[in-house]
Amino acid sequence: MLAGLDPEQRSAVTAPAGPVCILAGAGTGKTRAVTSRIAHRALTGDISARHVLAVTFTARAAAEMRARLTALGVSGVQARTFHAAALRQVRYFAPRLLQGRAMPELLDSKARVVTLAAARVGLRADRATARDLAGEIEWAKSSLVEPGEYVVAAAKALRDTPYEPAKVAEVFTAYERLKRANGVIDFEDMLRAAVWGIEEHPDVAEQVRSQYRHFVVDEYQDVNPLQQRLLEAWLGGRDDLTVVGDASQTIYSFTGATSAYLVDFPRRHRAATVVRLVRDYRSTPQVVGLANAVISQARGAEARLRLELSGQRPPGPEPELRIFTDEPAEATAVAARCRALVTAGTPAREIAVLFRTNAQSEAYEKALTEAEVPYAVQGAERFFERAEVRQAMVALRAATRSVPGDTPLRDAVVEGLAAVGWAPDAAPAGGAARERWEALAALVQLAEEFAASPPASARSELASPAVASERLAELSIGEGAAVERPATLADFNDELARRAAQQHVPTVEGVTLASLHSAKGLEWDAVFLVGLSEGTLPTTYAKTAEQVEEERRLLYVGITRAREWLWLSYAVARSPGGRSRRPSRFLPQLDRSGGGTERAGSGAGPAARRVERRRTQIVSCRICGATLLAGPDRKLGRCPTCPSDIDEDLHERLRDWRARVAAAQKVPAYVVFTDATLTALAERRPARPEELIAIAGIGPRKLGLYGEPVLALVAGAAVEEVCSEKTLEIES
Ligand code: ATP
Ligand code: MG
Fold first, then answer.
1. Domain spanning 310-379+510-632: which CATH class is it, in words?
2. Ligand sitting nearest the alpha carbon of 5
3. Are strands 627-628 and 619-620 parallel, antiparallel or unpaired?
4. Class of domain 648-731 as given by CATH
């Protein structure tokens, strides 16, 4: 078993009983390490497998852990989610603790009770708002915040609340009362009951603690205060606890999760064995290099435990950064590349397109449909299957009767959507309400695009039964006539129906469309990270420094999902001709000189778009091949961590020469050449002008000024030889 592990993993596996903290980066084999530790201890007779409780956060992860333990020849370990473990405990002890009373029913969703509670305090919460209120209650309960403490705690945590915090607190209070009156409990109550059972009942505590003696927690950066309290109750002061986590992947803070427990673990457990895993077995050095570059800019508490990953796989293709004029062009290009990958043999299920918010999925659903690439939306409904979108389509059909026929299409759509409570400049704050608003905003955007250029496919294609009979009539008059008339609301409704019908085709296996949040822990051969513009990533709703850092970590999680191919892109404008946006601040400083915006050809729908392909210049490390993104590294031509093959003597002479030139010209030394350029010169030892100009920081002007003396120094000349009074004079 130990043979399949690297030295760090092995030290985690063989660490003595007691606290162990594995700080493992993405793809470093956390699960392999923790399962091996359990197996090793069980098989060497150190512990009994049935005394182990291994907790994770998703049922999928728990199942994975059980499977690996079985494969390692160990059975009897309890590998469960916090919820499942708590539920099991509560069910077991309920008869004793409730003295014969029935165990309250467990709510599988808070929404219904929250809606009732909101009504009790005079609020009419729609479905989306109810979801956001439920989110606030969940956050509070997970953070051990009582209704009476909510207002202060929410202010401190800078929560984005659906109503005034005081109003939310009222809903929270009413919700708790309603639950009690109806004899139901929610998930957090169940965790609390598990804690209460142990903390208040010595006999329960004793039984639980004699059953579970060794604890393992995976993804520990996602633990919330309530779960931590339960973990401590289980432990009861003992310390045989192994935690595994990656602070740089903390992306669920908004639900109450905090990496503080992971970050503070070595301080709280002075005797802890701390192991760092940095060998990345998942991704190529190119992908790993980019991940390191992005996370190296991180600030704040999570960044203190930042790890620099080292890629273990053979080199692969460079990550690509692509810039497009608008989102439809971006989606079309992504779909075309997906198609090319599939054609070249990559299974569609090994490809993922990841975005920040679910509202972004529609453009990709459409583009992939057009490119005939199968796909599946993960963790969310397809755009046209969402309740709000279906309701909106009904409202828009009804609006064809009420909105005057000569109303411009966009205005007609906005008017129609007013019936479902949507207004253009009333984006709500809360998560679910915002998602609903954004989905309907996406419909308005579609209307704008449709009005600007009804896609050629809509005019000439009869593939879908949803094409209305009027359209047949139009087509018989000829395409020209159809284009002359401005698009009407009825046209647009047909278009929506056509898209919905096309995207309805269920797929068994396909490209994964997923939000960055739901991609955590997963991996694919090819990953497309799209929509990387300011306002989207980071979202405009990230206001505090901490919120911005969480957005940066989201990008990091996204990058580290890729095994081999990685594509990052953004569109300057949302729709053709729209307001322009800046690239995400998290994209490392890229040399854009060799690149340019990819533009769609003039006057055509997506089918006829001619994409101008120019790529941003990529500079790779000449030692390990990783992509270099930070300016100084690009100048150097290698990762700062890769071994330097510097010619020390040459470096010394170059510095001496630079000092003399700078003094003669009365300028600071870096004006002549920066340190990075000097190091690059001493490492690469250019022999010819072409090699000299290939070094970053040396352009035609500097080549003209200093080319001769530098080449002479490289060839072995002494500083005095190249620094005659005359040269210095000419230079100054
Ligand atoms: P994430 O942070 O994204 O959840 P992780 O740390 O859980 O990542 P794993 O998914 O456990 O990483 O491991 C990534 C891959 O590396 C797996 O396919 C695993 O089998 C492989 N791996 C782990 N350790 C080794 C090793 N020592 N030698 C070879 N392959 C390994
Ligand atoms: Mg994992």
1. alpha beta
2. 1
3. antiparallel
4. mainly alpha
